[in-house]
Amino acid sequence: MFGYCVGNDVSVRDWQKRTGQWTLGKSFDTHAPFGPWITTADEIDPHALGIRSFVNGEPRQSSSTKQMLFDCEAQIEHVSEAMTLEPGDLIFTGTPSGVGMARNPPLYLKTGDVVRVEIDGLGAIENRVEAASAAPRIE
Length: 139
Known about the structure:
The chain is mainly beta. It has helices at residues 13-16, 72-80; strands spanning 3-7, 34-40, 50-55, 58-64, 114-119, 123-128. The N and C termini lie far apart (42 Å).
């Protein structure tokens, strides 16, 4: 394992609901931003880091990586059973509770919203929600 960074596991919920699989809604070209740098594995304990997200400055998620259901090593072991991991591959490890879809009522992102994701020791990234371009049609 080389290192760790902050990632935003972006989802387009209406695309996720089109099939029984979640993958399509997480696979748009502009999704999965990460950064702002890579912290090498020898510099940090990935299992005890605060993790938070905000939308327009309002807290949405707050937890710790120690609350993850599966630690980083277990996730790598599991993924590598299905595919060959190569240098440069990224594994997004999941998100704490608090996503908008799970709220009652649901609270979805809208055009112009700014999403900030922070992880202690790894930094923070911010992304603005932009309107989707025309989706390709399958005929």
